[in-house]
Amino acid sequence: TGYTEPQRGQFHFSPRAGWMNDINAPLWHNGQYHLFFQHNPHGLTWDTMHWGHATSPDLVHWTQKPIALEPGVHPGDLWSGGGVVDTADTAGLKTGADAPIVVFTGTNGVSLAYSNDGGRTFQNYDGGRQVLALPANSRDPKVFWHAPTGRWVMVVWTDNGGNAALIYTSPNLRDWTWRSRYAADWLLECPDLFALPLDGTGPTRWVLTDASGEYVVGGFDGATFTADSPTPQRMDQGANSYFGTFYAGLTFQNMPDGRVVQMAWQPGNTGKGWTGNATVPVQLGLRSYPEGVRLTRFPVAELATLRTSSQSWADRTVTADPATDPLVGLTADTYELVAEFDTAASTASRFGFDLHRRADGSYDRRVAYDRAAQTLYGAPLAPAGGRVKMRILVDRGQLEIFGNDGKLSYTDNVAFDSSPGSQGLRLFAEGGGVRVVSLQLHRIGSTWG
Ligand code: FRU
Fold first, then answer.
1. Within this chain, do residues 45 and 132 fall inside the same structural domain, yes or no?
2. Pair (199, 315) in one structural domain
3. In this structure, are 292 and 310 located in the same domain?
4. Ligand 1 midpoint to CA 308 (Å)
5. CA 203, 177, 263, 404: dihedral to nearest 10 degrees?
6. Is 310 part of any domain?
7. Whose CA is nearest to atom 9 of ligand 1?
8. Residue 12 within a domain
9. Closest by Cα among 118, 111, 115, 116 to 28
10. pLDDT at 1
């Protein structure tokens, strides 16, 4: 395939052929980002899980590699899990010059596989025997290095006795000790646990997330997680389920620059040859707002390197009169819109963008801000300092909307019609004028070689 089918993301990773679900073991190793994913290479639906594999020098150009973990070669259920780079060779598995990549998988117990050739091939540790037995109905081990205690931490999901995250620690990735259980009704599959500085430079806080993108913020001492409030928030406003548009994200391990970068599974998009794709990588942040501390998601800076042509406008008022709309007459297929509106200086009740518009005025999707309701695309977003910012990513089947620098994240699927007569754009305003502080249109090229 040339990655040219309808709905095939041009700047979103998807498997060349077959089904993908969860992101597994995202990590950086020796100059390359690695992405593994739940994969059925033989069909378009979930079946017989393999670990697919892709690498990237820059987080945004991905090249699919041969299967990393394969049934029959690697024993057990090759279900979701994490992976680490064992820089100090704590597990004693290193044979060459490079630090081993060690990945964790299995259901009701955890097995290790490791690579000494930069992720090209994975060996079973101890014949694939489980290094850790888990209670029944437990899975999805995510592992990270906890520097303050100088040991590895594993967080595992269970619904044994109610939904919970189980926390284990190890000095060497092979011998694990149970430490604690964080019980929460909302916690469903694929937990992740990571640290972020509050407001960029403030104290370190910990975030516990699940597959449906719910999270709580709290403290973690290397053994026990304590939430500030038991009420979870949602990091993405899309349909957060296995059959929705946003699920099972994980953060990269061993990042060279300290950023916390996450990719998630975007279910639903399907073509003749493949099903499912990954979201764009986003940088996570933790910010204080009047209503509390919230996780922010915003595309990684590298995404801007995909821009092939850019146009920009500033300081104008757009009304219902098309002559005031700078986008009239322009066309774009896969692109990014970056806009800042002065809502305080606007009279329009609703404004925003019509995407993939045709000459008859119809369009594939409208992204609207409602001033009275203070919602963007139907999700709450209050203006900040009288301004509303939008960053909208439009791919062939993927629509990702970020509001106010990642305060709002909304991952959606739209089967955009990319035929030439359907590539129009419109900045619309209803009930008055909208004050446009700045507007940019960046066309984005295909990342497929
Ligand atoms: C989440 C999930 C995981 C499991 C995997 C199997 O989507 O159900 O809990 O490990 O998918 O593919």
1. yes
2. no
3. no
4. 37
5. -20
6. yes
7. 189
8. no
9. 118
10. 58
Which atom of ligand 1 is found nearest the CA of 79?
10
The predicted-structure confidence for 305-363, as pLDDT tens digits, reads as follows 999 999 999 999 999 999 999 999 999 999 999 999 999 999 999 999 999 999 999 99
Q: Which of 251, 279, 299 corresponds to the end of one domain?
A: 299
Domain count, the chain: 2
Distance from Cα 258 to the centre of ligand 1, integer Å: 28
Q: 391: which strand partners?
A: 338, 402
**Residue range(s) defining the domain that contains residue 368:** 306-444
d(CA 364, CA 418): 10
Pocket test for ligand 1, best of 105, 140, 160, 241 (most atoms within 8 A of CB): 140
Pocket of ligand 1 (CB under 6 A): 21-22, 38, 49, 79-80, 139-140, 189-190, 211, 242, 247-248
Atom of ligand 1 nearest to the CA of 140: 10
192 with 216, same domain: the answer is yes
Is residue 238 located within the same domain as residue 272? yes
Residue 208 forms part of a structural domain: yes
Q: Which residues are catalytic?
A: 22
Q: How far, in Å, CA of 168 to CA of 213, rounded?
A: 22
CA of 328 to the centre of ligand 1 (A): 45
249, 269: one domain: yes
- Please state whether beta strands 387-394 and 379-380 pair in parallel, antiparallel, or not at all (unpaired): unpaired
Residue 338 is predicted with a pLDDT of: 98
Ligand 1 midpoint to CA 298 (Å)? 25
Paired residues of 312 in beta bridges: 440
User: Which atom of ligand 1 is found nearest the CA of 107?
Assistant: 10
**How are beta strands 375-376 and 292-299 bridged, if at all?**
unpaired
Query: Which residue among 281, 299, 317 closes a domain?
Result: 299
* Domain CATH number, residue 162: 2.115.10.20
What CATH number has the domain bearing residue 426?
2.60.120.560
Q: What is the pLDDT of residues 362-403, one digit of tens each?
A: 999 999 999 999 999 999 999 999 999 999 999 999 999 999
3-state secondary structure of 354: strand
